[in-house]
Design a protein that fits this description.
By secondary structure, the protein is mostly helical. It is built from 19 helices and 6 strands. The protein has 2 domains: about 55 residues, no CATH class; about 375 residues, ADP-ribosylation/Crystallin J1 (ADP-ribosylglycohydrolase fold, Orthogonal Bundle), CATH 1.10.4080.10. The strands form 2 sheets. It has a 3-stranded antiparallel beta sheet. It is globular.
Length: about 500
């Protein structure tokens, strides 16, 4: 039997095979000499032995080498599917996860152009698209673009990490290296302190943390653990936007099961958020989890409306985030001109920022509330169209990169990587992600490239996390031969 060792390593993820050495479970030391010797010996002398070992934990009907999505560190238990199980393709989901990362980056960097430009009238309108960027509330321009338009990175360059993507990346990494489905308070705290700079040791004193994220970081640095880090007596920023942009990914880790997604996301959300900010973040997590549950026969417009209506059930009726949702949905439904999103945005400003409807008190442009409301404008009026949703999100105002990135990620997941490339007619978009731009102490997943990764590898590790979640938390199964998950169907209940 002729076996291409390098090909196998590449296909099943060489970073996973040496994860204990490369990431070291919080150590970046290279593989030890004995380990290197063992790998060379296996490669030279026992290629078949490798196949036996990697498949030793797989059940009889699961052929671990039949496809590349096989985690050698995970025991794949025997599972007998039930008639009511939802069957989800792992390879399709792998493509969808790549679509999530790619579209989130496009939306993030497009939204950054207009971030904090407009927090009160005069606001941007559709007429400003393609025009010059204006100064933000601090009097600055962004360095990467001077025109309000879609921003793309092509094959020759990596997408830069930003706070809309990098903490999600960190949470995925922590789940991966600890081999758990739910992170503990200690794992979250140690992960934040290891991978996030303080202002004292960051380049140019920029640690890419703001408001509640930054407060929680220093609370953890002082010894407090989540969820205490979001308690109002310690964190006065607990109702800022932070959790909404750092936890959506947990919905993707629990396909078709928002109940499990909420369990996974609970502590990460409560690291920085409580009450209305917490509920808004849960709203997004639920939509992401149900993205693999929604009827595939629906149009994209119908899908996003259905997902939003399901997530609305999580919002306490007496909360201001519920009031905002209902207010905006009524405005959208009653508006005969679905291109006129500006009227609803202006109504949000008057009703909530000025008049304080539903008990909402505007504090600053980073508020969870006003940005949650702004996100719903782009969601509803975008009607499932990715470019249109990003465009509206970038123009709506306030912290525009955050809601825009959220919907970019969701719609990118629904479309998949190829779908994202097609809607923008951009087949040569970069697949590389530079986590080292904002965060530290992550393994290099690309040879000779410091702090870089690829969407393909990021999605692969995401699939392995889901493998564990399906078996450990859902009581379902993974069939590696058929390349599917069997997920017990709870009717989308959470």
């Amino acid at each position: 039997m002729q076996v291409n060792w390098q090909e196998i390593l590449s296909e099943i993820g060489q970073n996973k095979l040496i994860k204990n050495h490369k990431s070291g479970y919080e150590s970046d030391a290279p593989p030890s000499p004995p380990t290197i010797f063992l790998f060379k010996w296996l490669k030279k002398s026992l290629p078949v032995f490798f196949l036996i070992i990697t498949g030793i934990h797989a059940q009889d009907n699961m052929v671990g080498t039949a496809n590349k999505l096989f985690d050698p560190e995970l025991r794949y238990n025997k599972y007998t599917p039930n008639r009511t199980d939802r069957v989800i393709s792992r390879s399709k989901y792998h493509d969808q996860l790549q679509g999530f990362w790619l579209a989130q980056c496009i939306a993030n960097w497009t939204g950054l152009i207009t971030e904090m430009d407009k927090v009160e009238p005069p606001f941007y309108t559709d007429d400003h698209w393609g025009g010059p960027d204006q100064r933000n509330i601090w009097g600055n321009f962004v360095p990467h673009a001077d025109t309000i338009d879609f921003y793309f990175i092509y094959d020759s360059q990596p997408w830069g990490a930003d706070d809309d993507t990098d903490i999600e990346y960190m949470y995925q990494h922590l789940l991966d290296i600890h081999n758990v489905s739910i992170l503990s308070p200690e794992q979250i705290s140690k992960g934040w302190l290891r991978h996030i700079y303080s202002n004292e040791d960051a380049t140019n004193s920029e640690n890419f943390l703001w408001v509640s994220n930054e407060t929680a970081y220093y609370l953890m640095k002082g010894g407090l653990l989540p969820p205490v880090t979001s308690e109002p007596e310690y964190n006065s920023n607990y109702e800022m936007i932070d959790a909404q942009l750092t936890t959506e990914i947990f919905g993707l880790f629990a396909p078709a099961r928002p109940d499990i997604a909420l369990q996974m996301a609970h502590l990460p959300i409560r690291t920085t958020a409580k009450n209305n900010a917490e509920w808004a973040a849960e709203f997004y997590v639920i939509m992401y989890a149900l993205a693999s549950y929604v009827d595939s026969e629906l149009s994209m417009e119908e899908k996003v409306i259905w997902l939003a209506e399901q997530a609305r059930k999580r919002l306490p009726d007496e909360s201001y985030v519920a009031g905002m949702y209902d207010f905006i949905k009524v405005k959208y439904d009653a508006n005969p001109d679905k291109n006129d999103w500006e009227t609803t945005r202006d109504a949000i400003y008057t009703s909530y920022q000025v008049d304080g409807s539903d008990g909402y008190v505007y504090n600053q442009s980073f508020d969870a509330g006003i940005n949650f409301a702004a996100s719903l404008v782009s969601l509803f009026y975008g009607e499932g169209d990715l470019p249109r949703t990003i465009r509206i999100g970038a123009l709506t105002g306030w912290d525009s990169d955050n809601p825009t990135a959220t919907w970019g990620g969701l719609l990118g997941f629904l479309l998949g990587k190829r779908g994202v490339e097609q809607v923008f007619d951009k087949p040569n978009l970069s697949d590389t992600y530079w986590i080292g731009r904002t965060r530290r102490n992550f393994p290099d997943h690309i040879p000779a490239a410091e702090g870089e990764d690829t969407f393909q590898l990021m999605a692969e590790r995401g699939v392995y996390i889901i493998d564990r979640v399906v078996m450990e938390k859902m009581g379902g199964g993974v069939d590696l031969k058929k390349d599917v998950w069997y997920i017990p169907d709870n009717g989308g209940i959470y």
